[in-house]
Amino acid sequence: MKNCEYQQIDPRALTVSPSSAQIHTVKKVQRLRRKWEVFPGKNRFLCDGRFILARQSGVLPLTLGLIIVTCCLFFAFDCPFLVEHLTVFIPVIGGMLFLFVTISLLRTSFTDPGILPRATPDEAADIEKQIDTSGSSTYRPPPRTKEILINQQVVKLKYCFTCKMFRPPRTSHCSLCDNCVERFDHHCPWVGNCVGKRNYRFFYSFIVSLSFLTSFIFGCVITHITLRKYSHSLSRSVCTILVICFFSIWSILGLSGFHTYLVASNLTTNEDIKGSWSSKRGTEDSGNPYSYNSIITNCCATLCGPMPPSLIDRRGFLPPDEAGPAASTSEIELPPFAAKNGTHMVG
């Protein structure tokens, strides 16, 4: 009986051949990872790395929701009355402004703002060798800088201890996203992203078009109320739109005016707040070295220049040696029969 039991067992079900283990290992190694999966910054990626936004982007749905709800109330309760008493072009204009605002907002939120890739270990070691003059591996010198000349004016480049590199001109490290952003303007929680070199034009078009949309709706609501002559038939929805527009229009118009000043001066919010080129700093050459001394040229350089390419290559594949350790043979699944009866194979 004992021999019969051994004859009924298929030996191939009890052992895992080296070739089978190698096939399982190769299958796991063949799965290449994209660079966005191991990106060191505090960002979120959507659609397999095609879209990028800040990890803390919870205010973005609120921004989008306020715009959509306000416009829906306007189209539902104001437009029918205004079309009947004024012109049919009111909902057309409102719809075009709404689409432009929404597209500008989404492009600002999902566009790489100009993130600079961090230095590789070899690049970081080479920079450390160039600037380490202390002779001690434990000594950390004060913040290191380099000086370069831009338009006959000295500009200091600061060293970023996180990204292990000297920041290019107008670059700053965002503490919320943990990235160095080229031509950093500010981190905007309302759009859920940093605003920098690559998405500033979309941000500016968003706030300017939102100013037009808010002013347009506010004016239409006032006209609606005036034509009805404050009758009792005025709905609560119309009053809600009026309150929303009244409290938001001033901040939006002020923000648009401020950024129009920045664009005309070729400044960033970060530079203006810090007073980088203010005469109050007491330096001899305190003018803005990036200004073209022309409002039109500054506007064209900021808003109409070619879109620079993204430098982080977030959808590129990692080299096989950086994609993660290969699966060991202990991770290979054994056949069910062998897993359960492997301890009873000794005859």
Category by helix and strand content: mainly alpha
Question: Helix count, per DSSP?
Answer: 10
Order of helices and strands: HHEEHHHEEEEEEEHHHHH
Strand content: 5-15%
- End-to-end distance, in Å? 13 Å
Report the sheet with the most strands, covering strand number, pairing sense and barrel closure.
Answer: 3 strands, antiparallel
Would you identify the regions where 5 or more consecutive residues have pLDDT less than 50? Answer: 1-6, 325-347
- Give the overall shape, derived from the CA principal axes: globular
**Helical content class:** 40-55%
Average pLDDT figure = 80
Rg on CA atoms, Å: 30 Å
Strand ordering within the main sheet: 3-4-5
The number of E-state strands comes to: 9
Organism: Monopterus albus (Swamp eel)
Domain Palmitoyltransferase DHHC: 156-274
Family: Belongs to the DHHC palmitoyltransferase family.
Keywords: Acyltransferase, Membrane, Transferase, Transmembrane, Transmembrane helix
Question: Could you characterize the architecture of this molecule?
Answer:
With about 350 residues, the chain is mainly alpha-helical. Among the domains are: about 55-115 and about 185-275 and about 285-310, no CATH class; about 115-165, no CATH class. The protein is about 45% helix and about 10% strand. The protein has ten helices and nine strands. It has helices at about 1-10, 20-30, 60-85, 90-110, 120-130, 200-230, 235-265, 270-275, 295-305, 335-340, and strands at about 45, 50-55, 145-150, 155-160, 165, 170-175, 180, 185-190, 195. The strands form four sheets. The chain has a three-stranded antiparallel β-sheet. Strands 1-2 form a two-stranded antiparallel ribbon. A hairpin with a 4-residue loop joins β1 and β2. α3 (about 60-85) packs antiparallel against α4 and α3 packs across α7 (about 235-265). The chain is globular. Mean pLDDT is about 80; it is low at about 1-5 and about 325-345. Belongs to the DHHC palmitoyltransferase family. It is an enzyme of class 2 (transferase). This is Palmitoyltransferase. Its EC number is 2.3.1.225. It is a multi-pass membrane protein.
